[in-house]
Every structure is written in structure tokens, then in C-alpha cells.
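Course assignment 3, question 2. Fill in each field.
Student: A.L.
Task: Predict the tertiary structure for the chain below.
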Amino acid sequence: MKKIIVLITFAFSVYTYGQGNCLLYPKGSNERKACRLGETTRNYKQGSKESQVLFDSITSLSPNYAWAYKEKSVPYFKRGFILEGLRILNKAVNLEPENHIPYRAYWYFANRNYKKCIEDLETYYALPNAYHNELTPGGDMDMRLLLGMSYAKQGDLKKAISTVEKCIDSYEKEMEFGLLDYYILGMLYVKDTQYNKAIEVLNKQLETNTELAEIYYYLGLAYDGVLKTTKAQNAYKKALEKLKEPYRMRYGYLCFRVYPEEIKERRIENKI
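Answer field:
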């Protein structure tokens, strides 16, 4: 199973992926010189003036060096300068779409531009050399789950569910499952009123993740949908308990958030 530690790794990583073997470029070429310069970027803090100047030097030597544009864009996104980050990242995407479209799609999703996220991921998965198990930058979630949630936010629940089902069905090993995969599918089932299916997969998620309040909330909705009131109320109660925990697990994606007020509205006679 993908570990929570990948979130920590992402938060403190300097650069998100390696630039490749510099020896593949002709000796003495600007491309090799640019690649060698790229190897020195690890000596600087991400987003520092020194690192940004260095990336400019790299792209001056080799204007088609996609890796440098992508890495230069990263601190802009992390600091909330989305438009500037996109301006730089777009150069990397135009040069090497197979390597950089998923990263741009991730930021579109994070900033609630679900239409653009869909456009990017549909383009990416149509590429002949696309890696279908592409993960989000933190390594915690398959990008196809973001695609499914984006379809849902655009009002196409059937396509959303189909996308997530196919994603989960494609896993060949237990370690490929993330901490939220079944939760996302169950949440979509609830929104599509497929309550029995939701109950099945949300309980399956609880076998590996008992820390997320949202799992219990949507499980409560599913039990309500099949008129299992006592189980629904127990699930809501557990969701509220999790929300009150100071160090609770937080769902880092902005797609469908759950708030205490929503859960309290589901109480029967305000008692659970």
C-alpha cells in the first residue's frame, strides 16, 4: 500500500524527479552542459534566487530542455503563484507532454479547474507512451482518481464511476492501492445513489484506513439510503469523533469536503 510517508517526502523534497543521464548528450554539446548544470541544482534550496537563476542559465544553453522549465515552475505553484507557474510549465508540456502533462493536470485539479484537468488527463492517457499508473506528485494517489473526481465535479457521475472502477480494477498488487481509492469510489457511488455498492467499498476502505472522517460520513449516507438508521447514526457519530481529533488525517484534495455541520444535520432528533 502507498504509505502516508510519501506526503512528507513530497513536502520536503527539493526536486520532483531526476533529469536523466547527461552522457546521452554529445560530448561538448550545450545539451550536456545544460544537463551538468542541472545536476548542481540540488545544492540550492528550491525556489531560491540562486536556483531560479541557475534554471535560466540552463534554458539559455539549451532552450528545449523541458526538465528545467518544469523544475523552475514548481516553487511558483507551491507558493500560490499559479499563473506564473503555468506560464513556465507550459513550455515543458509543449516540449515533452508525456513527462509533464500530469503535473499540470494535478495543479489544475488542486485549483478547482476541473475542465482543464480533464482536458490534460484525457490528452495524456491518449498518448501511446502514457504511463497509466501515473501518481500525483506526492505519490499518494493514482492520477486516474483525480480524473474521475473531475468528471464528477463537471456533472458526469457515470463517467466518474467508470473511470475510478477501471483504475482500481487495473491494480495487480496490493501495494498499488492507496489510502483513499475505495473511499473515492464509495463517495461517487453515494452521489449516484448506488448505496449497497457504496457500503461494500467503504467498509473495504475501513480495512486499511480508519482515520479519515469522510469515510464514515459517506458510509452513514449509504446506510441512510438503504434505511439502516442505527448503522447510519453510528457512522455519523464516528465521523464527528474523527473531525474532533487534533491530529486527524486530512483529505488533501479540494474535490468534496465534509464539514461538521453537514454531519450534524444528519442526526436523528439531534441525538447520536
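Instructor remarks: The two ends are 34 Å apart (CA to CA). Residues 5 and 140 are 9 Å apart (CA to CA).
Grade: pending
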